[in-house]
Amino acid sequence: MNASEIQCELRRVARADKALILARFFKTGKGEYGEGDRFLGVGVPEQRKIVRKYFSDRRRIPCSRTLTVVRCLLRSAFHEDRLTALLILVEQFKKGSAEEQASIFDFYLKNLKRINNWDLVDLSAPNIVGVFLLDKDPSLLYSLADSEHLWTRRIAVLATFAFIRAGMFEPILTLAEFLLIRKRDTHDLMQKAIGWMLREAGKRNEEVLTTFLDRFSAVMPRTALRYSIEKLHAPARDKYLGKRGQTH
Q: Are 28 and 67 contacting, i.e. CB atoms less than 8 angstroms apart?
């Protein structure tokens, strides 16, 4: 496995018409969040097939070799090269020893600037950053959440998905309060991500969500609030929407 092989495979299944659609979908225009990103026109299912080609058997690929390939792919200007790199990294992390997982985690943190769109974040952060920190001090997430870099903040939020799946809700509650209430993060993609994670927490423990909403729904940004309450029954949704803006 080398980076050139993978890039050739991606380009073999690329479609120019799809590249145009993806460029619009991921907001690559001037002043948009994905400004300047370039697309080959390869969907995620096709990328996963390529990843499985190299990880479908039981042979162990040395972590150092994988990181060399991933490093090269992450440097690419093309979105699909970078996403495929991260999908490979997730697979290597799953199969890795504790030492290898630590190396992958450190590598990920050193390359945050290359993880620069929401799908790159969402498909990697929970499964690398979140899983690695599950049995460790999660305070790193709070440092990441304080970043000026949009995608680093989103990585912090999406990493909490691993904690939520494990029934551990404090990280997302702390980050939601910090980002929505204290910092007043105004970016739509952050508000959607936080609302999504709060909703996921509520699906597993509704009381955790409603306790948070009882405290903060009146001052939460509308987008985050709407995302967070999607799975609640209609009377509860109406209650929290009605409280918004009431600060007495």
A: no
- Kindly report the pTM of this predicted structure: 0.94
Around 40, how many Cα atoms within 13 Å sit in the side-chain half-sphere?
22
> Residue 106 corresponds to which tokens in the numbers above?
């450190």
Q: Please, how many CA atoms are within 13 Å of residue 38, restricted to the half-sphere of its CB?
A: 7
Write out the H or E segment, with its range, that includes residue 45. helix 44-55
As a whole number of angstroms, the distance between CA 50 and CA 211 comes to: 44
Q: How many helices (H) and strands (E) does the chain have?
A: 16, 0
28-40 tens-digit pLDDT: 999 999 999 999 9
Residue 248 pLDDT? 46
With b for 16 or more beta-carbon neighbours within 10 A and e for fewer, the 210-243 pattern comes to bebbeebbbebbebbbbbbbeebeeebbebbeeb
Q: Give the integer Cα–Cα distance in Å for 237 and 232.
A: 6
Smallest CA-to-CA distance from 98 within 106, 109, 87 is with: 106
Among residues 154, 153, 103, which one has the least CA distance to residue 132? 103
Using the predicted structure, report yes or no on whether residue 170 has a pLDDT greater than 60.
Answer: yes
Q: What is the pLDDT of residues 57-104, one digit of tens each?
A: 555 678 888 999 999 999 999 999 999 999 999 999 998 899 999 999
The number of beta carbons lying within 10 Å of the beta carbon of residue 2 is 11
How many CA within 13 A on the CB side of residue 112? 18
Whether the Cβ atoms of residue 147 and residue 180 lie closer than 8 Å to each other: no
- What pLDDT does 203 receive? 98
